Structure formats: C-alpha cells, structure tokens
Amino acid sequence: MALGPRLDLRQSQSLVMTPQLQQAIRLLALSNIEIEAFIGEELERNPLLELGGEDTGGDVASSGVDATFDAPAAPADGDPAGSDELIGAGMGEIDRPLDIDLGGEVFHHDCASDGPDRVAGEASGGLDGALSLNDISTGGGADSDGWEDSLEYDLTLREHLHAQAGMAMSGVTLFIGRHLIELIDENGYLRGDLLQVSHQLGVPLGEVETALAAIHTLEPTGVGARDLAECLALQAKEADRYDPCMARLIDNLELLARGALPQLKRLCRVDDEDLADMIAELRQYDPKPGSRFGGASVEAVVPDLFVLEREGKWMIEINSGTLPRLLVNRSYHVSLSGGRHDAKSKAWLSECLAEANWLLKALDQRQRTIIKVASEIVKQQEGFFRNGVTQLRPLTLRSVADAIEMHESTVSRVTSHKYLSCARGLFELKYFFTSAIQATDGGDAVSASAVKSHIKTLIDEEDAKNILSDDQLVDLLKERGFDIARRTVAKYREALGLGSSVQRRRQKKLQGAR
C-alpha cells in the first residue's frame, strides 16, 4: 500500500469539563466561610454583581428548594428573544432567568434559631416532605456587625512580660531580658541556650543569668523555666514550700511518673502521709504557666448546616448568616448597554452577565445538593441524633451516593470542611461516616465510633483495684454484642488518649496517694 498525504474527516465523542462546570464543582467543596470570600472576589471582578439589602431590581442569588423560575416572554412570531433584542427594545428587565416568585416565598432569618414560628410551621414537612432551605441572603452587608466585633483582645504572654520587664529591670539587664522574653514559648518555657545568647549579645554569661533570674520573678510564677523541674521549683519557692524534701521530689519527677512511691519515700526521707501531701502540693502547680495567656488567634468553627427537631420531624437548614445576599443588577446592565460601545465592550458586558447568571445558578445548585446529602445523613443516622454516639451506624460515601443517586465524589466534596450543628453539638459531616464492626449475634453491624464510646465507658467505670486489660475489654465488649479483636481495642483505646492497663494503674495509684 502506497504511503501519501491525504485529508480525512473523523467523528468522535469526548467528555469535556466546561469552565462553568469546573466552577460549580469547586464551589461544592467550599465551606460557607470560603464561599463568602469567593463571592467577595467575584463582586470586585464583576460589576453586575452586588450585595443585596434593598430592592434594586436585581435577581436574588438563591431562595430555596421551592423557588420558581420564570422563563422570559417570547415574541409574537414564536422565535425566542435573546438578551440583546430585549435590551435593544428597552425591555432588559424581562430577561430574568433566575427570577423568584417573591409572593410565594417566605424568607428565613439569619439562622435556624430565628423565627421559631416559621420553623414550627414547616415542621410537618420533615424528611418526608420539602426540606427547609434558607436563601443565600441575610444580613451580610458591609454595615452589619459580625461576631468578630464582639471578640475581646487577649494579651499575649510576651506582651505581658515586656510590660513587667520595663518596670522591674533597667539598663543592660532590661536589654538582655527583652531578648530572653522573645525566646519564651507559649507555655512559658525558655527555648534558648544562655551561652549562645551571651555570644550573640556580646555580654558576659553572668549578666544573662542575672537577667533570667529577674524574669523568674515576673508573673506568672514559673515563667522562663528551662524544664518542668525548674518550673515547679520556682512555684514551690513562691509558695514557701521548697524544702530539701520537696527539692529531692522535684529532682526525681521520673520516679513519680512511674509511680515508684516506695523509692521516693526513701529518697525524700518522708513517710506516706508527708509524701502524699507533697504530691498533692505539686498537683496544684501549673506545669504550663504561659498557657493562660492568649497566643495565636483561634478561629471559631462556624456551622454550615442546622439540624432541628420539631414535632418529631427533622428540619435541615443552610446557615445563611455567613453568606451575603447576592444580586444581579440588570438595571445597571441595561443602562450600560444603552450607550455606544464597540464590539469588544459589548462582548465583555455580555460575558459579565452570563457569568453572573451562572454563579447564581451554581450557588443555588450547591445549596440544593448540600441539603440533599445532609438529609440522607440525618435519615441514616437518626439514632445518633436521638440517642447519642452509641447509636451511630456504619455509613459510607457510596451508600449515601446510591441513595440520592449521585456520584460518590460529589458526596465527598459536599462533606468536606463542612460542619453540622444539632442539639448534641457541632460535628463535621465526615464524622458520620465510620467503618463497621460485626455484631457477635449476627445482627446489624455497628460503627467504630460506637465501639469507642463503649470502650471509654468501660474504662471510666473500672475499679482502681481491678484495672481492665485489653483482653478483658475484648470479653466485656463481646458480652455487649461487639465482635472485635484485641489489637483493634488497643488501637481504639490509644485513639481515645487512654493509656494501657499499666499506665492507668499508676495513675490510679498516684490519685490514691493524694
């Protein structure tokens, strides 16, 4: 067969993700706080988007599951009218693909706790009917006072020490002391070598030790210590309890940690009563004196969903208090399109309108998807919401995806970095997906979180004279209907922060010596 150049026509199919679809997928994985930041960026980029508050003739971002969308009116000849024709005819207000029947809508307040009459009136729907869904709106304007405004400023440990150093030191000692304060961590311990500080500052080592001794006199007592023993010794001196017996006890903290009380009695030369009194005194000291002061700012977790029970039915609502009310200002679009513009400007304006419409649709679809996934989680884990963690069922992403006829990756995106607030507390949506533990009687499997709860209960209720080993925990769990291996019990126990039987026996022994 001869080889030569030729032209062929071939037809093929391929699946391509459009930029709009990529944006919708990205929005689905964002939390409400991240969505708020994203909307802020879009407001700066797109002039047709604005925050709501008053009726500006724009389209509301998303009102809920029962929102209705009106199609634009078609011309008499039957051909659908595009936005350019409507705008040219001065009828830009007609092209409203996301209009909402405001007469048929009852909007919620900022959160599920507002408007109890409204919530009670919708309770009959529950999971069997239309679930309540807030609109993206509600008070997210620039003039509203957020929860950040009510936070008080926390004085940091270093600021507190610098303020005291200015009054307690002077001259070279103050200069060295301020340098040492910068080496103190958030727990109050000095993380630096004195000899190295001496070389860095070009001062004698004795001057550095004098400055450190001055820091030891500052509040809180024990700050500037280089280890736990020095920290406790400083507090014992402040309490006038640093006698030779206490000094030997502090020097041998590793024996105290191991529960070697007979050896400690010999070293300290005290009897049982005096040793118990010394241990009780040590327990009153603060091993982390700097932790009481503010450090890095702690960000509060804001729930993305509220779950409420009303008249035996579960209500699920989006926390719209963290989301601004987003509008498309079509009046502004009409005024801009009325002037004379070149083709490039018109194309840019049309692109802004299309992007704004798509963003509103994507936000609305995001809410509906989140509500759909959360509804199935509440339905599957109703025992948890009514009775607690012991009734938590094993649940997987695939089972939820199959129930709501969505892809497993979609459920994964919805449950990432999103939190649910209910009567039992604040939980990440991922919390409700746990592995299964087979029941001994062949019945339904139970979740790993429920087994962990039973392990914690058994250990909390154990007798100080009869500490339960992992083998005994396995037997007790089998009596409760859980078929679980010893290594799994050990893994769950360590995940709960509970020590082994030997460690717990030492702790009980030390508590009994108080």
From TrEMBL:
Gene3D superfamilies: Homeodomain-like, RNA polymerase sigma-54 factor, core-binding domain
Domain RNA polymerase sigma factor 54 DNA-binding span(s) in chain numbering: 347-506
Domain RNA polymerase sigma factor 54 core-binding: 148-332
Keyword annotations from UniProtKB, A to Z: DNA-binding, DNA-directed RNA polymerase, Nucleotidyltransferase, Sigma factor, Transcription, Transcription regulation, Transferase
Matching Pfam families: Sigma54_AID, Sigma54_CBD, Sigma54_DBD
TM helices/strands, residue ranges: none
Domain of life: Bacteria
The protein's role, per its UniProt record: Sigma factors are initiation factors that promote the attachment of RNA polymerase to specific initiation sites and are then released.
Family: Belongs to the sigma-54 factor family.
Protein name: RNA polymerase sigma-54 factor
Lineage: Bacteria, Pseudomonadati, Pseudomonadota, Alphaproteobacteria, Sphingomonadales
